[in-house]
Amino acid sequence: MAVAAPLTGQVALVTGASRGIGAAIALELAANGATVVVNYASSEQAAADVVGAIEAAGGRAWAHRANVAEEAEVEAMVKAVLEREGRLDVLVNNAGITRDGLLMRMKTADWQSVIDLNLTGVFLCTRAVSRPMLKARSGRIINITSVVGLCGNAGQANYSAAKAGVIGLTRSNAAEFAARGVTVNAVAPGFIQSDMTASLDKEPILKAIPLGRMGSAAEVAGAVRFLAADPSAAYMTGQVLQVDGGMVMR
């Protein structure tokens, strides 16, 4: 007798899921049985391609456009998911941007845009899903942070501050939601092969990684799948899983 996939019958919302790590997470959760809502802000065709790939593999998905830094759009998105699916079991806060630059030259707008999307966006999405999840006494929230949120990085004061904030938010929410059976954890990728890292000088990066290579989006997605779907993760909350090849050992 065939064993049902662990997320069969569940609904997962993945923000920033039209490309890169977000797309890999959407595909992984769908492969494990979830109906996946592919959130995107501007890349409509790319989001449609992710939905198409999930459906071609026998899964179920649909796309929803929303800027997660905008409160009204987040509230409307979560309302749409609940109206269409009747439930929301997994939230993956993945959407993010970079606006790198040395602090002394960083424009206030570049600081604020990163904080708004990478940190406030996590707050808005988590708040929006908290009521239905707490009412259901079930849910798993996974926030994508970064190792630079643990150790900082020159030229990324805005990004590092936002990602450190995500870790603090993760642990605070984990403490608030635990009594109702909702877990909140984070995944902290290191240097992952993606559009965001394509232009970086790889040689010094690889020297800093004990495993000697960059990671893949699929490896980050695997960590998310564990936290979202594996029964063994049910007793984990407030934790940060580092997927970084050993770059930051703490």
Short description:
This protein is an alpha/beta fold and 250 residues long. The chain is 45% helix and 15% strand.
Task: Explain what you see.
The chain is an alpha/beta fold and 250 residues long. The protein has one domain (11-241): NAD(P)-binding Rossmann-like Domain (Rossmann fold, 3-Layer(aba) Sandwich). It contains eight helices and seven strands. The protein has helices at residues 20-31, 44-56, 71-85, 108-136, 148-151, 157-177, 202-207, 217-229, and strands at residues 11-14, 35-40, 60-65, 90-93, 139-144, 182-189, 240-243. Strands 3-2-1-4-5-6-7 form a seven-stranded parallel beta sheet, with helices on both faces. It is globular and about 50 Å long. The termini are far apart.
Topology:
Elements: E1 11-14, H1 20-31, E2 35-40, H2 44-56, E3 60-65, H3 71-85, E4 90-93, H4 108-136, E5 139-144, H5 148-151, H6 157-177, E6 182-189, H7 202-207, H8 217-229, E7 240-243
Parallel strand pairs: 1-2, 1-4, 2-3, 4-5, 5-6, 6-7
Task: Give a quick set of tags describing it.
alpha/beta; 7 strands; globular; 8 helices
Total count of domains: 1
The arrangement of helices and strands along the chain is: EHEHEHEHEHHEHHE
CATH class: Alpha Beta
Shape: globular
The residue-averaged pLDDT reads 95
Strand content: 15-25%
How does CATH name the architecture? 3-Layer(aba) Sandwich
The CATH superfamily name is NAD(P)-binding Rossmann-like Domain
Going by helix content, strand content and strand pairing, the class is alpha/beta
Radius of gyration: 17 Å
Q: DSSP helix count?
A: 8
Helical content (DSSP H or I, runs of 4+): 40-55%
For the largest beta sheet, what order do the strands appear in spatially? 3-2-1-4-5-6-7
How is the biggest beta sheet arranged?
7 strands, parallel
Q: Spans of 5+ residues with little confidence (pLDDT < 50)?
A: none
At CATH level 3, the topology is Rossmann fold
